[in-house]
Amino acid sequence: MDKQKLIRIFDKQARQYDGKREDPSQQRWRKQLISHAKGDVLELAVSIGANFPFYPREVRITAADFSEAMLTKARQAAQRYQLNADCICADIEELDFPAHSFDTVVSTLSMCSYKHPLEVLSKLNRWCKPGGTILLMEHGISSKFMVAIALKALNPLLYRIYGCHHTRDILGLVRESGMQIDKTEAYWQNMVHLIWAKPAHQQ
To answer: In terms of C-beta density within 10 A (0-12 exposed, 13-18 middle, 19 or more buried), how is residue 57 classed?
Structure first.
């Protein structure tokens, strides 16, 4: 999909978030994951700042998203929760930071939309400091056969509507990137994965 069309999809979603409550399960998963963030944090595809309520107040956040409409919501959330957050409009696939810039790197529900997710994961490995933490909450193909069959059938339609793929092997991609997985949890018919990891340069 053309990148500008993808941005328009997410701009539209940002407007639809007003008054929309997230599923309580997703809020619980975010809290489980984000409470482990420390120091200088990079959050990619920050969206409307749905993770912001769960960050420790002492962290310093660099929050990136390619949708300015999403970032407007994220800036409001940062003020609401009194977070030190610098929100930048940028495409993570084109963005770069010096190696070892961040103590914690966070991605929640973003790997589904990148054209080259493995390249993005490689960037996270490079940007995270040795001894740092990579925190992921991502959705993809289920390990349950019938659910996987349904996702494969619906994926073209879902991608056109929501701008994200539903058939990616999240754990497989993370392992292929070389990240050192400390802990994983799976939910929703094994479609959603919470992952606590260390960057590949810890090998």
So the answer is: exposed
The H or E element containing residue 183 is strand 180-187
Contact 198, 146 (CB under 8 A): no
Assess if residue 115 is contained within a domain.
yes
Residue 44 CA to residue 139 CA, distance in Å, equals 15
Q: For tokens 């790197």, name the residue.
A: 105
Task: Work out the number of other CB atoms within 10 angstroms of the CB of residue 69.
Answer: 19
93 vs 16: CA distance, rounded Å:
25
CATH number, position 124: 3.40.50.150
Domain that holds residue 42: 3-198
pLDDT score recorded for residue 15:
59
| Assessment of whether the complete model's pTM goes beyond 0.70 | yes
Mean pLDDT, each 10-residue run in order, the chain (203 residues): 57 59 84 97 94 97 94 95 96 93 96 89 96 93 66 60 70 96 90 94 52
Please give the backbone phi and psi of residue 122, each rounded to the nearest 5 degrees, phi first. Answer: -65, -40
pLDDT of residue 14: 60
Query: What is the CB neighbour count within 10 angstroms for residue 156?
Result: 12
**What pLDDT does 203 receive?**
43
Residue 75: CB atoms within 10 Å: 17
Contact assessment for residue 71 and residue 46, using Cβ atoms and an 8 Å cutoff: yes
* Residue 49 in tokens: 């700042």
